[in-house]
Structures are given as C-alpha cells and as structure tokens.
Amino acid sequence: LRFDEEVRVVVFKSEVKGIFCAGADLKERAQMDDAEVGHFVKRLRNLMDEIAALPVPTIAAIDGYALGGGLELALACDLRVAASSAKMGLIETTRGLLPGAGGTQRLPRVVGVGLAKELIFTGRQIDGQEALSIGLVNHTVPQNSEGDAAYQRAVALAKEILPQAPFAVKMGKLAINRGMEVDIASGMAIEGMCYAQNIPTRDRQEGMAAFREKRLPRFVGK
To answer: Which of 74, 92, 103, 154 is catalytic?
Structure first.
C-alpha cells in the first residue's frame, strides 16, 4: 500500500460482524514466556507504527467491538468512524496489563491527557456516541441491519477525499503528523518544507488552471 501510487485512501474494516478488532488472544498470550510476550508486543507496536506512517489518509470503520489492541489499531488511523452501538476501550488494566501498541501515546494525543488517563486507568468501555462526544471518533452513525453502517460512512468520507489532489493530501498529512510532535515554530518550518515540495507539482498547476477556467480540476497525483 505504501508504494502503490494508485491508492488514495485506505479503509480498515472487519469481516467479522459485530467486531472491529477484539485485541490480543489472551489464551495464546498465556502460552508465551516473558521474552516471547515482549517480542510479540514489540511487533504489534511496529505494525501500528507502519499503519500510522502510511502516506495516504487512513480511516477505521468501527462497526463493533474495538478493544485493547483493536482500539490501538483504530488510533493508528487518521480518522475513525463508529456505529453508535460500537464498544471501544483500552481494557488492558482489567487484565493486569497496560496498552503496549501505542495506546498510551496516541489516545492522549486524540482526546487529551486527562480523559486518556481516565480511560486507561479504569479500563472503561464506551459506545460510539460517547466516543464522538470526547473526540475519539470523527463520526458516529446508527447501526444498520447489515452491521456495516460505519464502513458505509467511512466509504462516503473516503469519497470526499478522493477528488482532492493526492500529493497535496499526502503533504498535508505529513505536515500535521510531524508538526504535532514539535513546538509551533518548528511546525511552521515543517509546513513550509511540505508546501515547497507541492509547489512544482502538475496538480498544483492544474488546480490553478481549473480555477481560472471555472471547471473541476483533473488531478493525476503528479
């Protein structure tokens, strides 16, 4: 996906009705020794980092349970859409664990430090409506009879992104992600560097031409 230039947006969904991702298999985990557990969780963390580093926008379609590592997967995405009946939580402390695949870092960056601490300390599960109210998800929708309402909303959101200039979208994502990790002056410099990369693109020229000619632009990602 990282190197496929035809990919504009990636949507993560589950093929299992009622479950987005239920997290680690604790029965499997119980068979591992301490060293194996550490290696396993490190691999999970690396996977989430790879997802977060995808250059194109990513959307998690949460149509059911997103617990533990499942919510960490959703947090590694840029955008999250949930069914109102979905259940989300970093429940690790209820099993004697703590989030180990990015949850302690990504959740506070999304909902704020105080709320993240409360959710992690208590292991509480929240539904899609509460997730929307605290900013954990971008959109919440009523579940439908097929059980894929969040996926349908995620696809609609992806279709809003698709017509936009692909390289500009990628640079926007990069500028936001890198800028959030530094002070605002450094962030402005990062934005400037990303903008400079976008200036010579054919898509920028096409966007300007389309505006002058009062027509829709035809972006090619170059």
So the answer is: 92
Q: How far apart are CA 117 and CA 53, in angstroms?
A: 25
Catalytic residue among 68, 69, 70, 89: 69
What pTM was computed for the model?
Answer: 0.92
Does the active-site annotation cover 69? yes
Query: Tokens 């004697």 map to which residue?
Result: 96
Structure tokens, 29: 């985990």
Of 72, 83, 86, 103, catalytic:
72
Q: Strand runs (DSSP E) across the chain, as ranges?
A: 10-12, 19-21, 58-62, 65-67, 79-83, 87-89, 126-127, 139-141
Domains observed in the chain: 10-162 (3.90.226.10), 166-213 (1.10.12.10)
Distance, in Å, from the CA atom of 114 to the CA atom of 137, rounded to the nearest integer, reads 17
Beta bridge partners of 127: 87
What strand order describes the sheet that includes 139-141?
10-12, 58-62, 79-83, 139-141
Q: pLDDT per residue over 30-79, tens digit each?
A: 788 888 888 888 999 999 999 999 999 999 999 999 999 999 999 999 99
Instruction: State yes or no: is 158 an active-site residue.
Output: no
> Please, which contacts does 176-180 make with residues 24 or more away whose CB atoms are closer than 8 Å?
177/52, 180/109
Residue 146 annotated to the active site: no
Q: 92 an active-site residue?
A: yes
